[in-house]
């Protein structure tokens, strides 16, 4: 950690989230290469200095008053508003989430550029990042920076255990290793990035062990406002440090701010749809209409219920899930509580999630001021096929919940909950992506090529969930870490 802002570096990494911490560790491994990692949120320099709420896997430090997140307003559907919460601290959203660490399925990579991102090419990087505490063999790693464990047996809460049993009794197959390429649709324990009872983000697993490197500067509480260009070449970044606007020259810039902030930074830097840029007074550097378009997330309907039995302390927010085709059913252990309208009754929710939606939204600038929130439009269920799939999934979820009610582990909150009301409970999984998607050509709406370099300019790369081409059939955290492992090779190989 340092308070000194360098004037010039070889590589500037913007955003110390799940991808940024990995890249900082791997790219600073060469002593002759200077690297600066910049994060707008706070930081810490050791495990002892890490805030305890970031280590506790049983806590989600994202509620009202949480100090390690940034909040955005998003519109799920016309007139239906939600709050988006993203991590703003070393480790990013991976430092505050529910420790869900499930890999994308092999078929998820079919639409990625196959010369670099086929499943056979990414599997070694999935293995390299993990220390799997339950499975070995050719599909798993045993010595990586991120521990991966699954709760089973006595570690399951009564709700998780009964849900597991109910799914098996209903005829769904047992799926004990959801990170295996051969995993099938079924019910099984959730792989979690937990080691020695602690949430292990990439800040802890990758970054803290290398903070001693003299060629690595980690700057927290530092906001990057835009990338700087000389014609079509990126030459540095503009930052606000202690209220003072400064510049850092860099031979290469890597954006790792996530689906919202990376897209917003590109737009503020003059890269995006020319019409949109001109509307907010930003000079055009490169015309890339795909910036901010193609936005996706996992729509989630929460069916309310009331738990009747106590839980187990220090367990992750999600221990067991059921996957069926493009749907994921979740019995949360964390207190995702909500008030039943008109009753004042506090209940939990059973998550029904559409994992491969077709509907796409957008992220746009409201003006060129980085202090002003962007406009985020999900356009959830705009596709009739999405609406139909969610409708049918909610009916299945309601039947599964009825099975749990029969065991006595939960009570129904509203027995008249029907498929006609499911949109009232629509929310989001906070799995944002696709705003700067990877592809073969900017003419097809892509923003980066197969080596993560931004089209139309040189010296600028993106490595985060914003470049994922289409929704993943599992949550994105493990896949984003893998992407950073993979992309580090491309950045090192690229000429400076």
From TrEMBL:
Cofactor(s) required, per the database record: FAD
Glucose-methanol-choline oxidoreductase N-terminal domain ranges (all copies): 87-110
Single GO molecular function: oxidoreductase activity
Pfam family, one: GMC_oxred_N
The keyword Flavoprotein appears for this protein: yes
Sorted UniProt keywords: FAD, Flavoprotein, Oxidoreductase
EC number: 1.-.-.-
Gene3D superfamilies (alphabetical): 3.30.410.40, FAD/NAD(P)-binding domain
Protein family: Belongs to the GMC oxidoreductase family.
Record protein name field: Mycofactocin system GMC family oxidoreductase MftG
Protein source organism: Antrihabitans spumae
Phylogenetic classification of the source organism: Bacteria, Bacillati, Actinomycetota, Actinomycetes, Mycobacteriales
């Amino acid at each position: 950690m340092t308070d000194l802002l360098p004037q010039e570096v070889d590589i500037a990494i913007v955003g110390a989230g799940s991808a940024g911490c990995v890249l900082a560790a791997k790219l600073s491994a060469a002593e002759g290469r200077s690297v600066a990692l910049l994060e707008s949120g706070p930081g810490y320099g050791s495990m002892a200095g890490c805030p305890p709420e970031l280590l506790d896997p049983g806590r989600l430090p994202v509620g009202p008053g949480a100090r390690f997140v940034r909040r955005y307003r998003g519109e799920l559907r016309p007139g239906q508003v939600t709050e988006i919460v993203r991590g703003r601290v070393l480790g990013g959203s991976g430092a505050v989430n529910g420790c869900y660490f499930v890999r994308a399925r092999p078929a998820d990579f079919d639409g990625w550029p196959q010369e670099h991102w086929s499943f056979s090419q990414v599997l070694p990087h999935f293995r390299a990042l993990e220390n799997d505490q339950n499975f070995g063999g050719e599909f798993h790693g045993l010595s990586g920076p991120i521990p991966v464990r699954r709760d089973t047996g006595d570690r399951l809460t009564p709700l998780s255990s009964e849900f597991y049993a109910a799914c098996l009794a209903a005829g769904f197959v047992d799926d004990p290793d959801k990170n295996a390429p051969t995993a099938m649709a079924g019910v099984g324990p959730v792989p979690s990035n937990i080691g020695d009872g602690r949430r292990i983000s990439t800040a802890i697993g990758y970054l803290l062990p290398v903070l001693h490197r003299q060629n690595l500067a980690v700057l927290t509480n530092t906001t990057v406002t835009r990338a700087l260009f000389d014609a079509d070449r990126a030459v540095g970044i503009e930052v606000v440090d202690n209220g003072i606007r400064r510049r850092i020259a860099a031979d290469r810039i890597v954006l790792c701010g996530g689906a919202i902030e990376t897209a917003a930074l590109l737009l503020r830097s003059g890269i995006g749809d020319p019409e949109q840029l001109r509307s907010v007074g930003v000079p055009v550097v490169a015309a890339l209409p795909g910036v901010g378009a193609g936005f996706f997330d996992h729509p989630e309907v929460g069916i309310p219920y009331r738990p009747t039995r106590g839980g187990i302390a220090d367990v992750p927010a999600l221990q067991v899930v059921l996957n069926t085709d493009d749907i994921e059913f979740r019995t949360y252990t964390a207190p995702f509580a909500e008030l039943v309208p008109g009753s004042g009754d506090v209940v939990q929710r059973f998550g029904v999630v559409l994992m491969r939606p077709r509907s796409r939204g957008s992220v746009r600038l409201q003006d060129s001021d980085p202090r002003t929130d962007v406009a985020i439009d999900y356009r959830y269920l705009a596709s009739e096929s999405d609406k139909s799939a969610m409708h049918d999934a909610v009916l299945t979820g309601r039947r599964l919940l009825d099975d749990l009610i029969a065991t006595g582990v939960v009570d129904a909150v509203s027995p008249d909950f029907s498929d006609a009301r499911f949109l009232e409970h629509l929310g989001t999984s906070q799995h944002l992506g696709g705003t700067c998607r990877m592809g073969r050509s900017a003419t097809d709406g892509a923003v980066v090529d197969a080596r993560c370099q931004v089209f139309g300019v040189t010296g600028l790369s993106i490595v985060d969930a914003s470049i994922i081409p289409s929704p993943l059939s599992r949550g994105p955290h493990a896949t984003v870490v893998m992407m950073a492992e993979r992309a580090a090779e491309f950045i090192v190989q690229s000429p400076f």
